[in-house]
Amino acid sequence: MRYLKLPHEKRREFLIELKGYGILYAPVSISEKNFDYKKVDDVDTIRFDYNRTVLPPRKYFFPPNETLFKFDKKDCRLIDAYEDPGTFVIFGMHPCDIIGLRVLDSRFIDDQPDTYYKRRREKGIIIGIDCLPDEYCFCNIRDADFADRGFDLFLHELDDGYLIRVGSVMGHKIVDACDHLFEAIKAEDISVMTRKEREKQAMFQHYENWDNLRYLLELQDSHPLWERESEKCISCGNCTLTCPTCRCYDVQDVPELDGNGGKRIRFWDSCQYREHGLVAGGHNFRDTKLDRFKNRYQCKNAYCETMTISYCVGCGRCTQFCPTGINYRKNLMEIRGDE
Amino acid sequence: MKQVKISRPILVDHVARIEGKAGIEVMVSNKQVSSVQMNIFEGPRFFEAITVGKKVEDAVAVFPRICSFCAAAHKITAVEAAEAALGVEPSDQTKRLRELLYIGDYIESHALHLFFLAFPDLLGYHDALSMAGDYSDTVKAGIALKDVGARIQSVIGARYIHQENLLIGGFGKIPGKAQMGALKDELASLKSASELASDILINFSNWKELDSPRLHLAIAPDDGRYTMYGSHIHASSDTSFPMKDYRKHILEHVVEHSFAKHCRYDPGGSKKKNEPSIFTTGALSRYTLNKRSLTNRAKERSIMNKDHLDPSNPLSNNFAQAVELIHYIDLAHNLASELAETIDENERPVKYDPQKGGIGAVATEAPRGLLTYLLDIDGTGRIKNADVITPTAMFLPMMEKDVGRMAQSLVDGGISDPSIIAPKLETVVRSYDPCVSCSVHVTTVK
Amino acid sequence: MMQSRNIYDTHVCRVLRVYPLTDTEKLFLFRFEDPSIGMNWRFKPGTFVELSQPGVGEVPISICSSSMRIGFFELCIRNAGRVTQKIHSLKPGDTVGIRGPYGNGFPMEKFEGRDLLLVAAGLGMAPLRSVFLYALDNRWQFGNITIINAAKTGPELLFMHELDAMRDIAEAENITILQTTTRDERWGGLKGRAATHLDKVNVDPNNTAVALCGPPHMYKSMFEELMRRGFDPRRIFVTVERRMKCGVGKCGHCNIGTAANWMYVCKDGPVFDYYDMISTPGLI
Amino acid sequence: MVETCSVCETRKPVVGVYALTSCYGCQLMIATVEKILQISEAVTFKSFHMLTSASSHGKVDIAFVEGSVSTEKDLIELKQIREDATVLVAIGACSIHGGVQSWDQGLRDYPEMYEKVYGNGEIAYEGLAAKPIDHYVKVDHYLPGCPPDEREIVYFLSTFLFGTYPERKERPVCHECRLAGNPCILIEKGEMCLGSVTTSGCNALCIGFGIPCIGCRGPTPYDTASFDALAKEFKRLGKTREEVLDRLSIFGSHDRRMRQMVEKAYGGEK
Ligand SMILES: Cc1cc2nc3c(=O)[nH]c(=O)nc-3n(C[C@H](O)[C@H](O)[C@H](O)COP(=O)(O)OP(=O)(O)OC[C@H]3O[C@@H](n4cnc5c(N)ncnc54)[C@H](O)[C@@H]3O)c2cc1C
Ligand code: SF4
Ligand code: SF4
Ligand code: SF4
């Protein structure tokens, strides 16, 4: 791997450089306490200290709302309505989100690839940045606290700049094009980085090994926790909609007034809604809030074979953005019998 | 002389192209109109009663639902009554944004009334949609005006019916400079369209049968600007009273044939000659009392067409609305231009304590005329007492008089066919631009 | 398998014939508008297509014709809601969009050389018809065959007349056709649930592949009954239904299982074997 | 309904827009959608009093009914409309949920209120406590909102013109609130946002303006609204039982589960 150093005073210039590759998306503040990825015009609005964004970066590859096809009833043909976003740069992705995106890849880019996702995925340049865990983070348990691939460049903060890992051909191209901004790595940079890594590790609040969790979830199906916690749930869907690896979607045809044309759209769905498991005739395979509540815990803790980790990357969104304060990590620990 | 005999009453089941459900019933016996009733079938909704005991924030969210055509008027007036009660003083920017929002309501409401409800009548169509074939430019201009009014309200109020982005003390979110800039440009492009309504009305003269002097009530502008705000209500009888005392001067009472109440004006004072009397309110009244304060373009128009603005004839109300359209497009343009430069998107609503309680009475000019709110808030921030009087309730008695006048003169002229008389009566009603659901809101529970 | 570039894109198919089967089900015969696609389009019994009517929506439907017939296919569709109602109004010459086939289908290769027992209840006859017709078209590869078709009433028995008409030739070919109803006083034939007629089958439990399709509540009793009679659980297969929007393991609606065994009915199914069925919570 | 499909394919659908007791906002919304001229070409408005004097009684393919049943006359009219219409669409909060005029449903005695306002026997009409129209007649489709959203009106009409019918929205406003990219103001500001129990379709308009949802689109259908869990959360935030009930009742007073579920959350205490 190639390593470089970006001094702090060159950061701004580097960001402006990045804008040259396409639209730049980065975390900005959207309210008093929340952050989200937004299109950035002024690089000074970028927040390097954000904890997590409300929506995960998947929104750029798998938009919350998207038109799949246009159609004309007369000839029954579907016309691909993919809109090429052009090359774009996502700056500031944390390791969990980078890994989350790779988890999504495993479902969307398989032997029957989702062409919409895939085409966008090829357009996105990903610049990662290291982070410091807060009380909601448990990516360490999920093996998602360090991204070893899935980015073009990755920035580790040093005292006076960033240590950059170059992760792709695109990454090489980017740094080559502005090599005057970078310096070579020195021995003390490496020791600063290792020190920071240690500090980060020390900030995590839990260090269990959850390998047996999948089986415990199955075995603990009648644990009293399920009743107790699902009763608090307001079925808002926040936990799934903010999850970086959730991917359920619904499809709807929206006809036009002319009686012929229209479009087929898809939009994010959530397994926390009644409709999710409903079939014609009114039978529902997940009829109660309790069923739906459990379903998410099962799904998120299933094993993603291509990534050899669980579908949950431990980003903490589903807990932070649950209006009724249902704590997902704590619940899992209770299922495991941890205190 | 031909014998005129009408055995059945002249009936209009459902007056079309007005907001709400109302009928007209005119009884004629011996060639004399013996009774005129505007029958209002709209069910009562008891706004003043159901808001009692509710938190003032919830109540002001509900009041605009009295009426969709003037939801902004209701929302603003209710919010300001609450502010008056609680001693909240909103920022200048808030006031200006509210005024622009209110103007948006005017533009939309007047454009709808003139182009969609009134013109089909004058031009001989059932509706604006069928008129669109022959008068495509007219209808398009009407739509464009209505749209800009709606857009102003959506940008500031979140949407153009039941604007939720309007709170006691300010706004949830303040529109950006770019949005204001876009409004400004759109308004500038509609200046000539705003004259179209009066161009059309010039071709139609008032029906002389309806001429009759009448009492007009309107808010007097405080700062010489012709708007919906002001601290005093003036009457064309040269009396006036502070808006907050409206309950002493505008008296409501129940009538048998309608869910809407009727109003009278009591100028006060001891003299017996000042008996409470029926009155009218609305664009014509505003014009009659405040015409000096119109913008130049609107003023010119009105001076050129004095005949169409006869205060004694209700049909003039249409022309007065057309003049106001010109006036308010100008005013909105000025306000939007100013806000596009100065607006501070980060201004937060003024903080207030709903538990302070108090009484606030406010009157504003809604598109259809005077609108008054009185909110009495208790020490827990809940409504103790609410009173709303809407323009339609105020002018209903006058409207019935005019319908009677029209019917009488047609009967006098030997016309006996109800199917000829009825549409004429509808035209009279429509000229008032009545807002029936507004009128049935309804009244105070003691 | 044909793979269009955009997996959600459909091929235009034309309705050739519409046969009313029952009050609520119709059988549709389709042909690909583009013959070159039609000639290359192959499917396995037990797989399904996504059938779409632009402007209305898309629904998963099992293919119910024989996979040996090329260029044509049949769908048996129940009028169950928005999309299927619209499909029911189609007439010969009208067009629909089709993508697929999807799903694993029945492992016909594992069935070869064995007797076949097909048990269908209600709409379950649709996917099993495909298995049955396939077996008829490849008669020499299979031993004795029994098909049990069950419904509440006679008029609701899917393909009742078709199966009836086959009875004579079937007998000659060692095929037993049993049609039974559970709640029809006027029905002259067999009565009772499918499981009650297992003594009438002509297959050898030791060497039989079983295919089941019916409402979820039928499986438990059916399994018990089959097991009691010595059928080998490794050779019992079931096809199930779930909500689906994509058919290709993406939209998430058909998910089943637990964290230890997470599956999608559209990709990992809709055909499951006995062990999947009993070990996957929520699958039955 | 099947009949409409065949009807639509052969001729313009005949549409009626009717009002019972309401603010007329739903009709105004229909009359002012951007594509109204296109709509007026695609359908025949047989009855639309607010817009046209060519309104008449009689059979229609699709009836849009706004307003609650609040008078005897409303009820008679409603029954006639149902009889005349192939497909009946309840449009707006009044029609579907009883509207704001039902705010006091069950709390205040209707005849008493009526008498207080109009006095005894002074008025010639009979008033009724406001009710959603499906208390009296069968409703085929529901188009919620106070007022309804323009896109949904166009969507409904378009599906009918396509010979099908609209899919019912049942996801909560929170769904669209996330899709719209808002932060949650219930979490961040502790405001009484009703998004989670309210039918979506407005794209979380109010929250986009930083204002909590007051539930104008009514409770989510099929008994999916978790009033109890939400009320518990409000309770935790220090809201009183009365406050919560008042807020939920503005548009949800006719939901048969609401009051009971809130009471449960507050455990009977005042
Ligand atoms: C693998 C598979 C095979 C099937 N084979 C057949 C068949 O051969 N014949 C047949 O008549 N039916 C079959 N079905 C059921 C059929 O898909 C539903 O009846 C149909 O989707 C109902 O859609 P609708 O729009 O008419 O009804 P609505 O109830 O209006 O459904 C609305 C939406 O819900 C979804 N949905 C509803 N029910 C189901 C369901 N059961 N499965 C999946 N999605 C659903 C659809 O996406 C549909 O667009 C099959 C289902 C599956 C999963
Ligand atoms: S975020 Fe919380 S309340 Fe909302 S659906 Fe998820 S668990 Fe339930
Ligand atoms: S509770 Fe309100 S703010 Fe929070 S997600 Fe739901 S709708 Fe949005
Ligand atoms: S957010 Fe709530 S109150 Fe606002 S429009 Fe939507 S449903 Fe109505």
Characterization of this structure:
The complex is a heterotetramer of chains A (339), B (446), C (284) and D (270). Chain A contains 11 helices and 13 strands. By secondary structure, chain A is α+β, with helices and mostly antiparallel strands. The two termini of chain A are 41 Å apart. In chain B, 43% of the residues lie in helices and 15% in strands. A 4-stranded mixed sheet of chain B has the order 6-5-4-9. In chain B, strands 1-2-3 form a 3-stranded antiparallel sheet, covered by helices on one side. Chain B is globular. The N terminus and C terminus of chain B are likely disordered. Chain D is of the alpha/beta class and 270 residues long. Chain D has 2 domains: 156 residues, Rossmann fold; 94 residues, no CATH class. Chain D is built from 13 helices and 7 strands. In chain D, helix 11 runs parallel beside helix 13. The N terminus of chain D is likely disordered. At the C-D interface, helix 2 of C face helix 1 of D. The structure holds flavin-adenine dinucleotide and iron/sulfur cluster (3 copies). Flavin-adenine dinucleotide (FAD) binds next to strand 4, strand 5 and helix 2 of chain C.
